[in-house]
Amino acid sequence: MRRLIMWNLITLDGYFEGANPWEIDWHRHVVDDEFDALSLKQIRAADTLLFGRVTYEGMAAFWPSQQGEVADLMNGMQKVVFSRTLKGVTWANTRILRGEVRDEVRRLKQQRGKDLLIFGSGGLCSTLMKDRLIDEYRVGVVPIVLGGGTSLFKPEEESTRLKLVESRSLKSGCVYLRYKLHSTAVMSADGPGRQGEAG
Asked: How far, in Å, CA of 42 to CA of 31, rounded?
C-alpha cells in the first residue's frame, strides 16, 4: 500500500499561513540550498501530489512558469485536486476527483506506485487527519512567531498520538520533524478512547 505523506512549514506558534490566504512570505527565512535539497528528496520519493482546490489554484498559477529541477518535478508529476466546484484544470498532468475524499484517498493508497505527497491544503489535511489516512507527518518549524493566522491543526474531538522518527536542525534555523502514527494512535480529548492500530 502506498504511503500518504504530509509536508508543511509552520511557524513556532503553529500557523501555516497568515490571516489571509497565501500569506506565506515568512517561508523565505528558511528556503536555501539545504532546504531545496530536502524538498527534492521528498518529491523524488513520490509520484503523485494531492491538493485541495485553493492550494491547487495557487500552485497552478505559479509553477508552470518556473524553471529548475523542483519546477520540472512539480510540473511533470501526476497531480490530483479534490474539488466539487472546480470547473477544469490547466496545470499539466492534473485530474479532478469529486467523490468522497476519504474513499478516493483510500483507493489511491491501494494503487501501485510511490508515495502520495500533500502540502499546503489545510482543509484537505484536516479531513485526512480526522480519518487517520496520513501515514507520516513532516513539519518544518520556522523560527518566527507570526502572532496570528491559520492553524494547520484544527480542533478535534479526539487527539492523535504520534511517534517521532526523525528530527533535524537546518542551517536556516528551521527544525525538520517527522512523525508517524503511534501504534495506539487515537485518544479522546478527555482521556483514553478507542484504540486504533496504525501502519
From this structure: 15
